[in-house]
Amino acid sequence: MMAKSLNHTPSVPDWTTLESDLSIVSLKTWEGLNTLALLMKKH
């Protein structure tokens, strides 16, 4: 990943991949928070 960005300037597909990666991460975080809330309610 690091070496790739050093070799050339980011093109449009790279930024699109980065954006989708970020949305996946935020989605997983949201799911994690929801799971945590459910666990808290059970106690």
Task: Give a structural overview.
This protein has 2 helices and no strands. The chain has helices at 2-7, 12-42. With 43 residues, the chain is mainly alpha-helical. It is rod-shaped and about 50 Å long. This is (thale cress) hypothetical protein.
Write the layout of secondary structure elements.
Layout: H1 2-7, H2 12-42
Which outline best applies?
rod-shaped
Q: What is the count of β-strands?
A: 0
Radius of gyration: 17 Å
* Main beta sheet strand tally, sense and closure: none
Distance between the termini: 42 Å
Summing up helix and strand content along with how strands pair, one would put the structural category as mainly alpha
| Share of helix, binned | over 70%
How many helix segments? 2
Residue stretches low in confidence (pLDDT < 50, at least 5 long) are none
Strand content: under 5%
Helix and strand pattern: HH
Nearest-integer average pLDDT: 78
